[in-house]
Design a protein that fits this description.
heterotrimer, A alpha/beta, B alpha/beta, C mainly alpha, B: alpha/beta, Rossmann fold, six-stranded mixed sheet, four-stranded antiparallel sheet, 38% helix, C: mainly alpha, MetI-like fold, two-stranded antiparallel sheet, 2 strands, globular
Chain lengths: 327, 360, 631
């Protein structure tokens, strides 16, 4: 290895780069290099590559897997899955790192910034799934303490929820740090004796809930529907003050339950313009909460990979997915 | 010293006058005031500076082997590095081959180092990643000499220093003595006027050191370079040096021939240094001859005054008469067996400080 | 700080209190202060602290100006495009070789680097990526690593040479490198997204920044280590500085610079996983996915692939560094290997054959599940006991004590251990944390770090001593430590998570696994480094082996042990922040959250800074002990 000559060579390369940089301004979103959605990796023969963000929960993964399967099978494109958290995925619309977010949970701030202001993304319509976030306790707790499902009584039971991590308050177990969350504001504004403890992942929530129900241990946790867990473990939702239009407008003043969301797909402007058939498939993609739960259940509990589970669903439900294919 | 000053200064290869090197912060300011005359400990205490070379002046004649001797920390290594400004002197004048080194531009200085002065180092300073031949050719390489030419030259030198057959070895495959031969060869390869030796053999075993000293003397005879030789070993100094400068705390305390140093040390420091030197091996008859006594016969053998005492033993044993010591045609004095015997027995003892004799 | 001299009647005059007495005094004063002022002067956490909001605003401004600000237009966006271009080039190039081609080329490089053994290792290593079913991901990771390492070398080696040659540059650059190295990797990500957005370009830059301090440090060290006589000899022959650099310093620093390259690669490999969070392609993605699904079986192959890649690249670079020249046989063999690979690439299918793949996700997950259930009682007990007995009291103490009391205690302890200046630095860091609005979280993190460091040192010391005293133990332990050190930090989180759930203890457990290997190694080397004559002298006076250890080896290995403590702190701090992902709370969670939630950006960024401050504070408290005379 001749370090000297290598240093020279590399210095030359760097100088070249800087020289290019001297010629004018570079703007983001003009898509060169790997910023272009179809430039990167793999099969150059394919019509293109669609980059789907994978947000960290299994329901999302199920939707993405089925959509990817259909896209590759019928849309003639290669799908690249990117393991990204929700807000980071939105950043990808700007650079071309992400073409599709399959299951968007509201995110009004991102909608405003990336769809309305920067105009690099747009909604591709509903997934057909209805999503709602809420606070849950295992069923046995609701049976033993019937009034626990009203938030007003939570302080009465706060001691039950104490853990080594929550100090002298009750624990509210939260999931991945990147999830949509009003927990801190709700606790503060409703004056609840609770402390948010972050489990770090969906898996931590599932495991906590399963154990709590099986071993009759107290647990209060953040969760959401659609989710396959409801068909396996009995859970009871704690009702917070009912959602009213605009009660969550100011993130600091939220004191109400989460809204039920019509989950939608977000795609990059570029993909919408140039995606052709693939974009049409994404736009037409729609299914039910039950569909998603069955695929997610296969992935999580039946040892199938996301790809295999998707294939299984696609094979079993031809009518549903054929409706997504543009004529 | 008086004799030194009278010699023709335009004949000298190296002339050093009023050279100072002070290490530490604001050394110029120290030099400008009287602090510079403080003793080392007081200077360091007061200014944080160390005066490594203090007001040193000397001249080296063409073809001479000039030895600078002193204990570690006496400033001798700094002095030799100041000559080609490997260490930048604080003040003073240096001329090599008549050229003012102190005011030379960096390019000019490089030329000087490339063609006129080369140096041999105590720890060899070889380049471990290069073969012996490439080490020797290094100086030629940086001059820009073509590969074939420099290899041809390097091979000649390789033979000269007795390293035939080792051209393709790497330095770490050689013994210490052989490595220093490479160092020597590297310095010789550029065919300099002057060679500087910075304690070149002090890292070697005594036997090998002796070989190398002989080697240097042989080379000196064969190539006739002017040499400045730094050492802390008195016997090495006496063996190699035509003239020897003894340094202490940055100053030259005495400069003279081996004979002058041993016969007439200027102070206790020098006297202490030369205490163990066998006087009869260094001093000439001149140092022990005396005026003939009235009853002595002046018909004994005649010997020259600069003959070493030891060499006079055969003549003194061959004749019962005192030896007549002559300088040219002039009788300087006489020496008898007892005088020679006394000189030889006093080898083990300390010489007195003969300051008065040196000045005589 | 010396104890006040107490006059006594003994003829020798004064008696000095032992050093520990001062520490005990500080503890007593702290306790008294705590009992008197508990609950006052606390600084509870506020998500809306002024510094956070300020940084959030700055972020919005920067984000909005991405296409107008000249800094972006003429520098950052071009850097992004250039980096992306380099990555694409490498990715296309490596992919175009095809899997047999790449394996052949790696084998050829291995042969050139170190003969047939390294060639075999390289080829087998790359085959294993295919066998693990991770061929494509591995190639993408390799492209990312190569891009980041190339850039790190282009920037780092000249900087390192400059640093190594100039004391002034070194003084300027050292604090910057310190901060870069203490800065938790996670804290890089959010600003990286802001400036470079997500994708391979920003992942490359993040990896580059993470690896750069090591490149610069070791290169500088390499240049400093070159024998001054050789440089002087070169100068004495009239070489210009450039000639000396090219012909003497660089060649003589070659092996150490190769080590710099080697370490740069290792650092880059450990960053690729975290970079996956900003859409770095490759193996990291699988690990992140495994983590979010709590699926050990999913992430383990990717972790193994990273370790294999690390081993292959490590052995190749080290062999290349030692090698003097390659003979003709090597060139022919290497050429034939590469050609064979490329020829096969034309014949064999483009994808690594399915039937050669092995999957062990199922058995691994079964094993994890088994361990989780059968060790449940033990792990829960460990977790609860350590939480109740260590973590909670300490955290309660630190968060409920007045901030000035904690600050005073830190000042006193740092003064005691390191002297005035480090103590003032430590105090400054602590006050800055308070001013940043992160006091409470800082104290939580400090608690976690203290407990983790204590455990790390305890375990590391025991392992290190055992290894130093038994060659056999050392031989068994060494490869395990090697593997543990190359494993990406993330991989440790999962078993910890599986065993202990999402708690602070999980982060502690993971950071202990992460930090023990270097500590054990440093301790072992320190003890082995005691000169044999000293040991011989001690044995000849009749010391038992216990006395030898306590009175000779450990005291003489003190420097190494302190260095180990210092290293342990930095590594633990890094891991505790990653532990924010699995419930560690404190600053780590703030950093993680700042990355994934836009509204927390300011808090996350500030928490990254606070982590650095905490690191510097702990460093100042421990470093000074090094300079004190040995007991």
């Amino acid at each position: 290895m001749k370090i000297g000559s290598r240093v020279h060579l590399l210095a030359g390369v760097l100088t070249l780069g800087i020289a290019i940089a001297g010629c004018g301004g570079a703007k983001v979103g003009e898509g060169t290099g790997s910023a272009a959605p179809q430039a990167s990796s793999g099969a150059p023969a394919a019509a293109g590559t669609v980059k789907i963000a994978i947000n960290p929960w299994v329901g999302y993964e199920a939707s993405a897997a089925v959509l990817a399967h259909v896209l590759e099978k019928e849309g003639g494109v290669k799908v690249e899955k990117k393991e990204l958290t929700e807000q980071v995925s939105w950043e990808g619309f700007e650079t071309g790192e992400v073409d599709v977010i399959v299951e968007n949970w509201g995110h009004p701030e991102e909608v405003k910034k990336f769809i309305d202001e920067k105009k690099v993304a747009l909604s591709a319509g509903s997934t057909g799934n209805k999503g709602v976030i809420g606070w849950y306790v295992p069923k046995w707790m609701a049976d033993r303490y019937p009034d626990i499902t009203d938030y007003k009584n939570l302080n009465k039971y706060a001691d039950l929820f104490k853990t080594s991590e929550s100090g002298d308050k009750g624990q509210l177990l939260f999931g991945d740090p990147s999830y949509v969350s009003n927990e801190e504001a709700i606790i503060k504004n409703l004056k609840l004796d609770l402390k948010v403890v972050t489990g770090g992942s969906e898996a931590a929530l599932i495991e906590g809930a399963t154990q709590a129900q099986q071993q009759k241990k107290p647990l209060l946790f953040y969760f959401w529907n659609p989710h396959w867990l409801f068909s396996r473990v009995e859970l009871a939702r704690v009702s917070l003050p009912a959602y009213t239009e605009g009660c969550d407008a100011d993130a600091k003043k939220v004191a109400c339950d989460y809204a039920e969301l019509d989950l939608d797909k977000i795609v990059s402007k570029k993909f919408a313009d140039t995606g052709g058939k693939a974009y049409q498939i994404v736009k037409n993609f729609q299914w039910t909460n039950e569909d998603q739960n069955s695929v997610a259940n296969d992935v999580q509990n039946n040892g199938l990979s996301a790809e295999d589970a998707a294939k299984k669903w696609v094979d079993a439900n031809p009518a549903k997915w054929q409706a997504w294919i543009p004529q | 010293m008086a004799a030194e000053r009278s010699s023709a200064s335009d004949g000298a290869v190296i002339e050093v006058a009023g050279l100072w090197k002070i290490f530490g912060p604001r050394s110029e300011r120290v030099l400008a005031c009287s602090d510079k005359d403080l003793d080392p400990a007081a200077l360091r205490e007061k200014t944080g500076c160390t005066a490594a070379v203090r007001n040193v002046s000397f001249q080296v004649r063409p073809g001479e082997v000039f030895v600078v001797m002193g204990l570690s920390g006496s400033g001798k290594s700094t002095l030799v590095r100041c000559l080609t400004r490997l260490i930048e002197p604080t003040a003073g004048e240096i001329r090599i081959g008549g050229e003012d080194v102190g005011s030379a531009s960096p390019a000019r200085l490089r030329e000087l180092r490339r063609h006129q002065v080369s140096m041999v180092f105590q720890h060899f300073g070889l380049l471990p990643h290069r073969r012996v031949i490439d080490n020797i050719a290094y100086g030629l390489e940086i001059q820009g000499m073509a590969r074939a030419d420099r290899y041809r030259r390097a091979r000649e030198i390789l033979t000269l220093v007795g390293l035939d057959g080792h051209a393709d070895s790497y330095p770490d495959q050689l013994s210490g003595g052989m490595r220093q031969r490479v160092g020597l060869a590297r310095a010789l390869a550029v065919d300099p006027q002057v060679m500087l030796f910075d304690e070149p053999f002090s890292a070697l075993d005594p036997l090998i050191r002796r070989d190398m000293q002989a080697e240097v003397m042989r080379l000196h005879r064969e190539v006739g370079k002017t040499m400045v030789f730094i050492t802390h070993d008195l016997s090495e100094a006496l063996k190699l040096g035509e003239r020897i400068a003894i340094m202490r705390d940055g100053s030259i305390v005495q400069l003279g021939t081996a004979e002058e140093l041993v016969g007439a040390p200027v102070d206790d420091y020098v006297a202490d240094f030369v205490r163990d030197v066998p006087r009869s091996h260094v001093l000439s008859l001149r140092w022990i001859c005396r005026d003939p006594e009235s009853d002595e016969h002046l018909d004994g053998p005649v010997l020259p005054a600069d003959m070493i005492i030891r060499d006079a033993i055969p003549a003194s044993t061959a004749s019962a008469r005192p030896i007549r010591v002559v300088q040219g045609d002039e009788l300087v004095g006489v020496v008898d067996r007892v005088d020679i015997l006394t000189a030889m027995t006093s080898d083990a003892g300390a010489p007195a400080v003969h300051a008065e004799k040196a000045s005589a | 700080m010396s104890a006040p001299a107490v006059p006594v009647t003994a003829p020798q005059g004064t008696l000095r209190l032992p050093r520990w007495a001062v520490l005990a005094g500080i503890a007593v004063l702290f306790t008294v202060g705590y009992l008197l002022y508990r609950g006052t002067g606390t600084l509870p956490h506020d998500d809306e602290a002024a510094p956070f909001l300020f940084i959030n605003d700055a972020r919005e401004t920067i984000d909005a100006g991405r296409n107008e600000n000249p800094l972006f237009l003429y520098l950052i966006n071009y850097l992004r495009l250039f980096t992306a271009g380099l990555y694409d080039l490498l990715e296309v190039g490596l992919t175009a070789l095809g899997w047999p081609g790449l394996i052949g080329v790696m084998g050829a490089l291995g042969w050139l680097a170190g003969g047939w053994r390294i060639a075999l290792l390289a080829a087998a290593g790359f085959v294993s990526f295919g066998v693990l079913g991770l061929w494509e991901a591995s190639v993408l990771t390799l492209a990312l690593i190569v891009a980041a390492v190339l850039l790190a070398l282009v920037v780092g080696i000249p900087l390192g040479i400059w640093t190594g040659g100039s004391a002034r540059v070194r003084r300027l650059i050292t604090p910057v490198l310190d901060v870069m190295q203490i800065m938790p990797t996670f804290a890089y990500l959010a600003p990286m997204v802001l400036f470079f957005q997500i994708g391979p370009a920003s992942a490359t830059v993040a990896t580059l920044i993470y690896a750069l301090p090591v490149t610069i440090r070791i290169t500088a060290l390499a240049i400093e280590q070159v024998s001054p006589t050789a440089i002087e000899a070169s100068a004495s022959l009239g070489a210009t500085r450039r000639q000396t650099l090219r012909k003497v310093q660089l060649p003589m620093a070659r092996e150490t610079i190769a080590l710099a390259i080697n370490q740069t690669i290792m650092m880059a490999l450990s960053m690729v996983v975290i970079a996956a969070l900003i859409s770095a392609p490759g193996l990291g993605s699988d690990i992140v996915r495994g983590l979010s699904r709590a699926n050990v079986g999913f992430m383990l192959p990717a972790g193994v692939a990273i370790v294999i890649m690390a081993i292959v690249l490590d052995r190749m670079t080290m062999a290349a560094a030692r090698r003097r020249v390659s003979d003709r046989v090597s060139y022919v063999a290497a050429g034939m290997l590469a050609l064979a690979g490329l020829a096969l690439a034309a014949v064999l299918p483009a994808e690594f054959p399915e039937e050669w793949r092995i999957s062990f996700a199922g058995p691994v997950n079964d094993a994890v599940t088994w361990a989780k259930f059968s060790w449940y009682d033990v792990t829960t007990a460990i977790k609860n006991i350590s939480s109740e007995a260590l973590l909670n009291p300490l955290q309660g103490l630190l968060t409920s004590a007045p901030w000035w009391l904690v600050a005073a205690a830190v000042l006193a302890v740092a003064w005691w251990s390191s002297g005035v200046r480090p103590a003032l630095t430590a105090l400054g860091c602590l006050v800055a944390i308070a001013l940043l609005g992160l006091w409470e979280h800082g104290m939580e993190t400090l608690t976690t770090v203290l407990v983790a460091v204590a455990l790390t040192l305890l375990i590391g010391l025991l392992l290190g001593i055992a290894a130093a005293r038994s060659l056999r133990f050392s031989a068994v332990q060494r490869p395990l430590l090697d593997a543990a050190q190359t494993m990406p930090a993330f991989v440790y989180l999962l078993p910890a998570l599986a065993l202990f759930g999402a708690t602070r203890f999980t982060a502690i457990f993971a950071s202990v696994i992460y930090a023990v290997p270097p500590v054990a190694r440093l301790v072992e080397e320190g003890i082995r480094g005691v000169p044999p004559t000293v040991v011989e002298a001690a044995v000849s006076t009749g010391s038992t082996s216990g006395q030898l250890l306590w009175k000779v080896q450990l005291p003489m290995a003190r420097r190494a042990i302190l260095l180990a403590a210092n290293q342990g702190i930095v590594m633990t701090l890094a891991m505790v922040v990653v532990g924010g992902l699995v419930g560690a709370g404190g600053l780590g969670y703030d950093v993680v959250s700042g990355f994934v939630q836009r509204t927390d950006f300011g808090m996350g960024f500030t928490a990254g800074v606070a982590t650095v401050l905490l690191g510097i504070m702990l460093d100042r408290i421990t470093q000074g002990a090094d300079r004190r005379p040995s007991p």
